[in-house]
Specification:
- With 332 residues, the protein is mainly alpha-helical.
- The chain has one domain.
- It is built from 15 helices and no strands.
- The longest helix has 27 residues.
- It starts with a helix and ends in an 8-residue tail after the last helix.
Length: 332
């Protein structure tokens, strides 16, 4: 009887945590409205959606499992090249199917490398993830006959989306496509983190030894979320290749992984929307500041990051809670 009551209480708690808040709904309504309200900004909005999905993938392992990575671009780039090669050689003509295939390939790579990454301390993980990304970049550079090398993978021709919608120069189809993919994968990620699996990940992040002592298979959980996050990153990379019809070594660069960490520093980790809000803030700051001072835009972004660190994440969180208090939740 007691176990049944406990199970019901846990189920009710998970259902309450997974309930949509008003600000969440407002966020996605605003994102959908931007399709019609910002017709001249579809290109940069598409980049934001792709970066947001990429940041979401890192947040799954950093914010919920405590796995830090300096080479997450390895999976982004692997998915990007996979989608480019599938399109160039006509192996999978439908962009959505190619997208899923590229994500699955990146997930397999994540699964294969997870056993190396999860060994040792955080410093060891940093070096291993960085090493994997550097090795893949060098392989892509050396295999020029396949990847195009330093010149990039050219001659990519994308088939119309769903056989009807061709990618246009204005980027409207690309943005709708990218935003739709982001929303679907966000829903899946939201379901994952609010499930018993997601709660067990947070327990592992908090104290792996204690989690193992109560019966949680720590390594199995970490391998699973690492492969899932790699798949998410691969889908983001595939989106970039499909919407730009080009892929270069830059998708595997260290700078891309570093920018991803900056996005999560701006937005915060461990609540999914951190990567999304960080991507919006980072891209808009980059675009705006680069237009004002092309030579010093990195200085100003760095200054903003310093301010975030000095003010403190807790203070920002307190301000956010004050805003949330203005939108009372409905009682269950």
């Amino acid at each position: 009887m007691a176990s049944g009551v406990l199970s019901t209480a846990v189920a009710d708690h998970l259902a309450l945590r997974a309930r949509w808040r008003r600000l969440e709904i407002a966020f996605w309504v605003a994102a959908a409205a931007s399709i019609f309200l910002l017709p001249g900004k579809h290109l940069i909005l598409s980049e934001i959606a792709i970066l947001a999905l990429f940041a979401l993938s890192l947040d799954l392992i950093l914010g919920y499992a405590g796995i830090i990575s300096l080479g997450h671009a390895a999976f982004f780039g692997f998915g990007a090249y996979a989608a480019g090669l599938l399109a160039k050689h006509g192996l999978i003509a439908e962009p959505l199917l190619a997208l899923l295939a590229a994500g699955a390939a990146a997930a397999l790579l994540g699964f294969a490398t997870s056993f190396l990454v999860l060994r040792g301390s955080d410093l060891t993980r940093l070096m291993v993830t960085l090493g994997i990304a550097l090795v893949l970049r060098e392989l892509a550079n050396k295999l020029g006959g396949l990847t195009g090398g330093a010149d990039g993978l050219q001659g990519i021709t994308m088939a119309p989306l769903l056989g009807r919608f061709s990618f246009d120069l204005a980027g409207r189809v690309a943005y709708v496509y990218s935003l739709g993919v982001l929303f679907v994968f966000f829903l899946v990620a939201r379901r994952i983190v609010h499930s018993p699996f997601g709660l067990s990940l947070q327990a592992v992040k908090g104290n792996a030894l204690r989690a193992a002592a109560i019966g949680i298979p720590v390594n199995v959980r970490l391998v699973a979320i690492y492969a899932i996050a790699a798949g998410y990153a691969g889908v983001a990379g595939a989106l970039l290749t499909q919407t730009t019809a080009f892929c270069s070594l830059e998708v595997l660069s260290f700078e891309r992984s570093a920018d991803l960490l900056l996005v999560l520093i701006i937005g915060g980790t461990g609540y999914l929307y951190g990567g999304l809000l960080g991507a919006v803030g980072f891209k808009l700051m980059q675009d705006w500041i680069a237009a004002m001072t092309p030579q010093y835009w990195q200085f100003w972004i760095g200054l903003i990051l310093v301010v975030i660190v000095l003010v403190g994440r807790d203070r920002f969180a307190a301000w956010a809670r004050g805003v949330m208090a203005l939108f009372p939740q409905r009682k269950p």
